[in-house]
């Protein structure tokens, strides 16, 4: 393939933020591998991309916590496109509960999806990128990877781990011309994940569900929630040569709610 034809894997790309990132990368000229546990969603997004943009796309069913399936996903990508320029690890899992009631299964799932999956995808993709002599890895993390989150111990702990993994990967891979960064979004108030947590957040805050979003807006200096486009803009920038001197960073996209 020519150097103008870039290839991106979006892990967890079949819906919500992942779908938006898949579309934005296609718009920016990437061929896109939409990898998701939901095969139908992954293939639907790939079909939409090919009907909307001048990019190629394939949808792949993959359990991102299974190392055999992740290795197969990477192999299929190379077979189809011959290279991997960018990995965006977007898969995420959250369960809100006070620590005294936090179930082990919810904790283990948080670590598996938010951290182990990132590790496996980065490990397998980096092998291809090292052979190429270049590459870019971006983890979609969270502001909860920098500050603790009440009743979200599994999510926050796994996201903190992602920051450490990003820094370690950046050190491992810098000599191979591979950059690794994390993007730390604020609250995606309109996202299905946040909306699904409204009952638990209302209970945590002791307020009606219809007042929860305003509470979270009030915490943000710029007085709005994070949008998919805010994150996509950061992904496009940090994947580009304009960010060529940035690696091992955890970049806030929080409207000023988190500033370090």
UniProtKB/TrEMBL annotation:
Which Gene Ontology MF annotations are present?
sorbitol-6-phosphate 2-dehydrogenase activity
Question: Does the keyword Oxidoreductase belong to this entry?
Answer: yes
Matching Gene3D superfamilies: NAD(P)-binding Rossmann-like Domain
Is RNA-binding given among the entry's keywords? no
Q: Which organism is it from?
A: Halalkalibacter alkalisediminis
**Organism superkingdom:** Bacteria
UniProt record similarity statement:
Belongs to the short-chain dehydrogenases/reductases (SDR) family.
Question: Which gene is transcribed and translated to give this protein?
Answer: srlD
Q: What protein am I looking at?
A: Sorbitol-6-phosphate dehydrogenase
Q: Which UniProt keywords apply?
A: Oxidoreductase
Xref: SUPFAM superfamilies: NAD(P)-binding Rossmann-fold domains
Q: What is its EC number?
A: 1.1.1.140
Q: Which PROSITE patterns match?
A: ADH_SHORT
Q: Name one Pfam family in it.
A: adh_short
């Amino acid at each position: 393939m020519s150097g103008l034809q870039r290839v991106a894997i979006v892990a967890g790309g079949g819906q919500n933020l992942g779908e938006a990132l898949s579309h934005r990368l296609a718009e920016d000229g990437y061929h896109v591998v939409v990898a998701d546990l939901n095969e139908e969603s992954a293939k639907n997004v790939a079909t939409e991309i090919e009907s909307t943009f001048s990019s190629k796309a394939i949808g792949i069913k993959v359990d991102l916590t299974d190392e055999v399936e992740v290795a197969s996903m990477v192999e299929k990508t190379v077979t189809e496109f011959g290279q991997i320029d960018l990995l965006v690890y977007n898969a995420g899992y959250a369960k809100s509960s006070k620590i005294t009631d936090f179930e082990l299964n919810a904790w283990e799932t948080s670590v598996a999806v938010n951290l182990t999956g990132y590790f496996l995808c980065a490990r397998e993709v980096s092998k291809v990128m090292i052979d190429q002599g270049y590459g870019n890895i971006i983890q979609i993390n969270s502001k909860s990877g920098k500050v603790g989150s009440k009743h979200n111990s599994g999510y926050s702990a796994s996201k903190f781990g992602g920051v450490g993994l990003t820094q370690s990967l950046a050190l491992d891979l810098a000599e191979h011309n591979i950059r690794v960064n994390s993007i730390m979004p604020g609250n995606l108030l309109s996202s299905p994940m946040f909306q699904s947590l409204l009952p638990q957040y209302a209970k945590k805050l002791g307020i009606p569900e219809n007042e929860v979003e305003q509470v979270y807006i009030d915490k943000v200096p710029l007085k709005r929630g994070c949008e998919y486009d805010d994150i996509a803009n950061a992904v496009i920038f940090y994947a580009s040569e304009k960010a060529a001197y940035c690696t091992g960073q955890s970049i806030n996209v929080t409207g000023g709610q988190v500033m370090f």
